[in-house]
Amino acid sequence: MAFLPRLAAWLALSGIAAAASAQSLPPEIEAALARAKLPRDAVTLTVADAEGRLPPRLWHRADTPVNPASIAKLATTFAALELIGPAWTWTTPVYLDGPVQGGTLQGNLYLKGQGDPRLVMERLWLLMRRVQGLGVRRIAGDIVIDRSAFEVAAQDPGAFDGEPLRPYNAAPDALLVNFRAMVLQFTPQGNVALLQIEPPMAGLQAPTSVPLQSGECNDWRGALRADFRDPARLRFDGAFPASCGPRSWPVAAADPANQAGRAIAGMWQEMGGQLAGSVREGRVPAALKPVAESVSPTLAEVVRDVNKFSNNVMAQQLFLTLSLQQRGVGTIAGSRAVLQQWWRDRLRSEPPVFDNGSGLSRDERATAAQLTRLLQYAWASPLMPEFVASLPVAGLDGTAKRTAARTAGVAHLKTGSLRDVTGVAGYVHAPSGRRYAVVAIANHANAGAMRGVIDTLVEWTAREP
């Protein structure tokens, strides 16, 4: 915490430097903006010493609130590292409310969701395998899903951008199974492409193959002419280009409220289990004790997935876990309050406008100055190695892989993009060994052209005066 007084002092003095540096931009940046056809008042740019010891090198419109898109995940993830801890894990326990006789559970099987962001199909299989290891082959009652850890209103997955089947629009769930999505695997064999659905979905009618067609592998998804309108039936009125080879297509569930139940029942049945009853929602009786559980990867590993690949639903799971841990139930309003209080306590300044923790929002607002403060605070923290390692490496991995080759490896940058928003925030590593906190965000109809400006800014930052 010794860093905070130094940061506060720097912020008090930075007004003069900020005013001066806001008057002009480096010629390289001006030229890049001109090429991108982005006006100066559409972008916010900062370059500051990560340790906060020197005046900023660049401070353009730094106090102007902008939509940060997925850069907002930086606050969610670092707050979680501090408040919950990098070694934290989520558990998904299983309960039985009856005896097991002759391979049959004489009662119900309960699964209690507790917010695990990475309960993927492989871990669901392992959990079901542990249940079978207890001698259960048939469930005489129901499979009961307990989602009470989160209190989140039902969401229209197409409300944000009219793309309800895009996995990035999946909503959070206390029992989030496979990111509320399924993966369609197409494998050409003979005259058809074999279709495999992961995880297996109970009650979903789907063909086992689709016809092959000749031609180039361009818009192969469009060529399939998939029909997802009926949640109980998947149709393909087109064909799969043979030239594509094996392909995967992640698709958000058409019936998100029932996706977890279908996946759990489907996995149970595929493993040879029988279910006499149905899958339904309910609460775990207080007297029951867990008989098995699935344990998630550590929070540090989850943070890495969230930031490297900008996974929206994982970020929202993490966000809701903040209030779940502090208040006993995960709510959007509760987590906003927790995150705002954390910001005021740790950074000693007014926080950004937080929404759902992922940046998939039109209401979120942050200034480049606020994001710079966050990056400097994180750099001074004992948790800095975990945090920096979670950020995409420019030109090499994650969502920053497409940055220019000339800047490859010199920066760790969290990207953010929405319609009319493109930006990055993170650290640039200079040959001298100095590290710079960098923020660059465009809010403009032509924001997609900001990528070239970002490449130029990173290169300029690394080339110290």
Description:
By secondary structure, the protein is α+β, with helices and mostly antiparallel strands. The protein has two domains: 249 residues, DD-peptidase/beta-lactamase superfamily (Beta-lactamase), CATH 3.40.710.10; 207 residues, D-Ala-D-Ala carboxypeptidase C, peptidase S13 (D-tyrosyl-trna(Tyr) Deacylase, Chain: A, 3-Layer(bba) Sandwich). 32% of the residues lie in helices and 21% in strands. It has twelve helices and 21 strands. The strands form five sheets. A five-stranded antiparallel beta sheet has the order 2-1-21-20-19, with helices on both faces. Strands 17-8-6-3-18 form a five-stranded mixed beta sheet, covered by helices on one side. Strands 14-11-10-9-15 form a five-stranded mixed beta sheet. Helix 8 packs across helix 9. The longest helix is centred in the first third of the chain and has 19 residues. It is globular. The N terminus is likely disordered.
Brief overview, please?
By secondary structure, the chain is of the alpha+beta class.
Helix and strand arrangement:
Layout: H1 3-21, H2 27-36, E1 43-49, E2 58-60, H3 73-83, E3 91-96, E4 100-101, E5 104-105, E6 109-112, H4 121-133, E7 138-139, E8 143-146, E9 181-189, E10 192-198, E11 209-213, H5 220-224, E12 226-227, E13 235-236, E14 240-241, E15 247-252, H6 256-270, E16 274-275, E17 279-281, E18 292-295, H7 299-309, H8 312-327, H9 332-347, H10 368-379, H11 384-389, E19 411-418, E20 421-429, E21 435-443, H12 450-462
Parallel strand pairs: 5-7, 6-8, 7-16, 8-17, 11-14
Antiparallel strand pairs: 1-2, 1-21, 3-6, 3-18, 4-5, 9-10, 9-15, 10-11, 12-13, 19-20, 20-21
